[in-house]
Amino acid sequence: MHDRKISVIGLGYVGLPVAVAFGKQQQTIGFDINVERIAELKNGEDRTLEVEPEDLGNADIYFTATPSDLAKADFHIIAVPTPINDSRQPDLSPLIGASKTVGPHLKKGDIVVYESTVYPGATEEDCVPILEGLSGLTCGQDFFVGYSPERINPGDKEHTFTNITKIVSGQTPEVLDIVAAVYSSVVTAGVFKASSIKVAEAAKVIENTQRDLNIALMNELALIFNRLDIDTLDVLEAAGTKWNFLPFRPGLVGGHCIGVDPYYLTHKAEKMGYHPDVILAGRMINDGMGEFIASQAIKHLIKAGKVVKGARVAIMGLTFKEDCPDLRNSKVIDVIKAFQDYGVELLVHDPMADGTEAHHEYGVTLVNDDAITNIDALLFTVAHSQYKSLSLDTIRSYLNEDAGVFDVKCMLDREAFADAGIPLWRL
Questions:
Q1: For the range 190-196, what are the long-range contacts, defined as Cβ-Cβ under 8 Å and sequence gap of 24 or more?
Q2: Which of 28, 135, 154, 315 is the most buried (most CB within 10 A)?
Q3: 61-64 and 28-31 beta bridge pairing
């Protein structure tokens, strides 16, 4: 057990489940700079769909956008996004901003734990000086820091905050014990004590770098097999009969983790004078898949004798993954941008995405179901349940003559499309 008063700074896909877990045990301060978000949460609404209304209602959370309320807590968990910028460099501005918010309200004995994905050293080298400067306190003497990387998988109702092993780290052995005790009080899967903050930071970035590289291999295989006129999934299913073959699939690699975290590691490596060839090669392959997918659709239009300029192309799915409203770093936008270069008439549809957010983030206007008609190329880019449930007749009703269907997620019945005479391409 512990006697700490918890605050959670950042109430998005990561922070809200954390706040709810602690809020079921004791009153927890939930802080976010977005006043609209705070108002929604006070009304029991979670636009991320990560927390069930009943769980949100059962949690004792003091929602606030007033920084001074953080002074009531002595254990602060910072869970804000850490994206990359247009140059694919780490953007620590949300993390720096959160540190500036917490700093003035620190007291002696407080502990600040960062959950945001960072490169090794960021907690102590980038965040601590801000906390010290704004609090007038000395880190390691008056207050302390720890790092416990988030492992939230948006949209995943099986692997949740409380049942995923939590890596914890602390500035001193005593602080580590406190951090472990705090998280152990809500994480039923238990905690793993990392030997240092830097080790915990590094563990986070390599988890997703490993997945990124494995998917990059599958994507490169898909590029090769496409030229050989071999179905990639057929090959993977055959190879998967071996007991130690890893079941990765090709695809668009986006989201707030896999498509971002490797750049945090490569940034730090290059600052230390090492060029990480393998990691960057994998990133280059994955970042190029959107253009490849669009090019395959354009080739179909040309072979079908259709005029590319003005052809009606429908993109089904904009979020970064299935059955999740999260639009952050969606690589579907790469497919969209590639099509825009060809001058096609582009229709983008997504039943999960928020239209206002889609327009704000990407300048994309989402269309309704009834707009998907007279389509020359239909691309399923996200495997939403709504798309999986579409009948063949419904899909056929969307299409013009000689239109092609492009199944990026390999979710459609290939044999049924062949029997119906509808061209089907899959990654």
A1: 190/165, 190/166, 191/165, 191/166, 191/167, 192/165, 192/166, 192/167, 192/168, 193/168, 193/169, 194/147, 194/167, 194/168, 194/169, 195/169, 196/169
A2: 315
A3: parallel
Classify 114 as helix, strand or coil. strand
pLDDT classification of 385: cutoffs 50, 70, 90: very high
Residue range 173-224, pLDDT digits in tens: 999 999 999 999 999 999 999 999 999 999 999 999 999 999 999 999 999 9
pLDDT for 56-105, tens place per residue?
999 999 999 999 999 999 999 999 999 999 888 999 999 999 999 999 99
Residue in the structure block whose two tokens are 């959670």: 8
Domains and CATH numbers, the chain: 6-196 (3.40.50.720), 212-426 (3.40.50.720)
Q: Which two tokens stand for residue 278?
A: 């393998």
**From CA 21, how far away is CA 162, in angstroms rounded?**
7
Q: Which residues are catalytic?
A: 257
What CA–CA distance (Å, rounded) separates 314 from 129?
Answer: 49
Judge residue 193's burial from the number of C-beta atoms within 10 Å of its C-beta, 0-12 exposed, 13-18 middle, 19 or more buried. Answer: middle
Residue 71's alpha-carbon distances to 1, 22, 25, 267, 356, in angstroms, are: 22, 18, 20, 34, 35
Residue type, 35: V
CA quadruple 332, 337, 342, 347: dihedral, nearest 10: 60
Whether the CB-CB separation of 233 and 225 falls below 8 Å is answered with: no
Helix (H) or strand (E) holding 2: none
- Rounded to the nearest 10°, the torsion over CA 418, 420, 422, 423 is 10
Residue with tokens 């997504």: 350
Query: The tokens of 389 are what?
Result: 């449930």
DSSP 8-state secondary structure symbol assigned to residue 42: H
**Single-letter amino acid code for the residue at 309:** K
